[in-house]
Amino acid sequence: MIDISNLNKSFYILGNKIEVNKDINVCFKSGTLIWIFGNSGAGKSTFLNSITGIHDIDNGKVIMDGFPISDVNNSEKSIFRLNNCGLVFQFFELIKSLNAYANASIPLQLLKRDKHDIKKTLDYFFEVFNIESIKQKRPKELSGGEKQRVAIIRALCTSPRFLFADEITASLDMEMSAFIYGYLKEYIKKKNGVGVFVSHDPIIKDYVDEVYEMKEGRLVRCDI
After folding, report:
1. How far is it, in rounded angstroms, from Cα 214 to Cα 217?
2. Sign of the CA dihedral running 162, 86, 83, 153
3. Of 8, 13, 200, 219, which sees the most CB atoms within 10 A?
4. Chain segment 54-105, per-residue pLDDT in tens
5. Nearest to 161 by CA among 133, 129, 196, 200
């Protein structure tokens, strides 16, 4: 479960305070896949970064399964994310000097997993997402869809209970998008976890449990 109360986040630009997320109160229950949509600039990506502790919030609380991620220091936040959260960023954030396999393995390397365990885990995901042939290629040699799948594998490889994704299927065709959403829905149910996805992809509506619209920094519950 993710319990969010009175969350506010703002930035200062040229001395002016810009309120991006405003007094957000919501509880995402375990075993649910959440879809958040809204206009560009509405505050969706900032919200993901705020609830995962990447951004410090102005005030409010974010509690994940009893862990107060909003109230601990940056080191504790990083350790919690590494062990419990999978993140897929809008622009993939792959390291240019590493091949696809090495990029996907980073969380497992940080957790000091055994080489054989890493290979077994990654071989499974590269096969599932049909990109076995690109393991040794660097990001500049990959298509947008291939980069996206590498980023998804990197997020899933540690078996996190919480998944956070920003435009997770933006570079994928309709068939692969449907497969990804179907796979992740089953994954979330099996882990009794929570998935929070920001997306403009209308296909997602067939796979989620709850829908919210971000309107000028406020989160509004919608009917599916």
Report:
1. 6
2. positive
3. 219
4. 999 999 999 999 999 999 999 999 999 999 999 998 888 899 999 999 999 9
5. 196
